[in-house]
Amino acid sequence: MEPTKRKRVLLTAEQKFQIVSRIEAGETLTKLSKEFGVGVSTIGDMRRGSEKIKKFYAASNGKSAKLRKTMKCANDELDSVF
């Protein structure tokens, strides 16, 4: 029998913000990883990048955070092209 590969889970920015908030409230990483279906190391990475997640969520005002799954921002280098 071949081992089955785990399906890749993409969380929205809002879910990431919820995870960071719950970590700060004292919930365990293993509980959160089981609830959201991601690995414990992924939750730990979110804890380490919590400031970046908070800034992105605040900048989006929660509107696009429900849809966005990446936190990449556009570079403002179009002015130099023209």
From TrEMBL:
Indicate the secretion signal residues.
none
Q: Which organism is it from?
A: Araneus ventricosus (Orbweaver spider)
Q: Where is the HTH psq-type domain?
A: 5-53
InterPro entries (UniProt xref): Homeodomain-like_sf, HTH_Psq, WH-like_DNA-bd_sf
Top-rank taxon? Eukaryota
Please classify the protein's predominant subcellular localization into one broad category: nucleus
Q: Name one GO cellular component term.
A: nucleus
User: Cellular location of this protein?
Assistant: Nucleus
GO MF annotation: an example: DNA binding
Protein name, entry field: HTH psq-type domain-containing protein
